[in-house]
Amino acid sequence: MTDTTQDLFVTSSRDARVLHVLDRNTVSAWRGSQPDAVRAWLDAQNFDAAPGSLVLLPGDAGVAGAVIGIGDPRDPDSYAHAPHGLPEGDWRVEGDHEADALQLGWGLGAYRFTRYKAASRRPARLLVQSADADVIGLVAATTRVRDLVNTPTEHMGPEQMEDVVRGIADDHGARFESIVGDALLAQNFPAIHAVGRASHRAPRLLHLEWGSTAHPHVAIVGKGVCFDTGGLDVKPADGMRNMKKDMGGAAHAIALAELVMARRLPLRITLLVPAVENALGPDAYRPGDVVATRKGISVEIDNTDAEGRVVLCDALAYAGERSPDLILDFATLTGAARIALGPDLPALFSNDDALADAWIAGGEATRDPVWRMPLWRPYLRYLTSGIADIANAGSRMAGAVTAALYLERFVPERTPWAHLDTYAWNDASRAGHPQGGEALGLRAAWAMLKARAS
User: Fold this and answer.
1) Where is the Cytosol aminopeptidase domain (predicted)?
2) For 208-250, how does the pLDDT look when each residue is reduced to its tens digit (9 = 90+)?
């Protein structure tokens, strides 16, 4: 995994300026220790150490230092306004803070997507005794998600996603294969093929294996719909505008698998990414079609815009055949989850209470929350088909729940499984979360797997 923090942290600096880190409980005592001129300067700007606040301190040669206000010291977001709020150069921190949260917040706050447009400035650099290895990995993983999601489909279609995963496999000595085009039919992945066959860019299943059979086996599956027109049930223009992000689940799955390998957790990893474009064309699958699946469950297509669950069902069935100890899947699956929980809270579904509790606990520990939603099985009635075993959609009621229930049909009954319906996007910029692609629930999943491996 590439160290994306090389220009953010320094371990020695002769001219680092001081950065005071305060909250509303510590600001009064610190302010009282300052010279009259500094107190007057702070008063003139009404500085009270509110979370997200920042004031530069003047000196004889210009800026002598700065002070920032934070909230929860364990939350990386508390520090994320510093890298671009401070002038360029080196900074050393004084005041109460959590070193790993500070470093992680610094790394996340410094991010800018620069593939097509240069950044207007460099972020400030943080003086540290040493950069925490887990922090470096998490910053790199989050950067991986953001970069993949932010890249337009022109440059991040199924074949480019294959190149990314193949490169990661090469870097970590993992086994990799890609099943492409009509080979999906020959090897019994008909649902993936059905969704992706209308595009001029062939659908494929990306498959990576890493780790020893002596270790617990985790299957990680990600929805890789590189662009979603909605198919013949075509989306309106505003609904299609950001659909380059519909592979956000795959971006999370890829980044998590890469992080596990980079940190060499004692786990065995299977990564599966069905990578397709849901395109319009003469060979597009149609509303009313009945699609075969790897598991032998026939699916009536109620809505071609409910394509994510159709490609995932073949991948989940294949994952289950490999008898993993648990299956995790990530998907930008439903607008219903966003309506229920908003953009910042991914919806978590699981058939296993211990697994769900562990993911939630990981989110609480890392300040990367997920919210459990019910697998309310009576709602399977909304997916009833008169001519097939199941429909891929139906009622508008409980859309996130019915999508998860659909996926559960393709998971072995006794295999612990968790599904994260994530937005993978920031609609507007705020400290630590620039507009565009975002990793949501990733740190929580990492904490869960790290605890499991230990």
Assistant:
1) 303-310
2) 999 999 999 999 999 999 999 999 999 999 999 999 999 999 9
Q: Domain segments of the chain: what residues?
A: 9-124, 138-453
Q: Is 309 a catalytic residue?
A: yes
- Catalytic pick from 17, 125, 144, 309? 309
pLDDT tens for each residue of 309-348 = 999 999 999 999 999 999 999 999 999 999 999 999 999 9
Phi-psi region of 423 (alpha: psi -120 to 50; beta: other; left: phi over 0): alpha
Which of the following is catalytic: 235, 322, 367, 450?
A: 235
Q: In the CATH hierarchy, which fold is given to the domain comprising 138-453?
A: Aminopeptidase (3.40.630)
Pull the structure tokens for residue 245.
């992000």
* 234 DSSP assignment: P
CB atoms within 10 A of CB 126: 27
**235 flagged as catalytic:** yes
Whether 297 contacts 409, CB under 8 Å: yes
Helix (H, G, I), strand (E, B) or coil at 363: helix
pTM, to two decimals? 0.96
CATH code of the domain made up of 9-124: 3.40.220.10
Whole-number pLDDT of residue 324: 98
Q: Which residues pair with 390 in a beta bridge?
A: 299
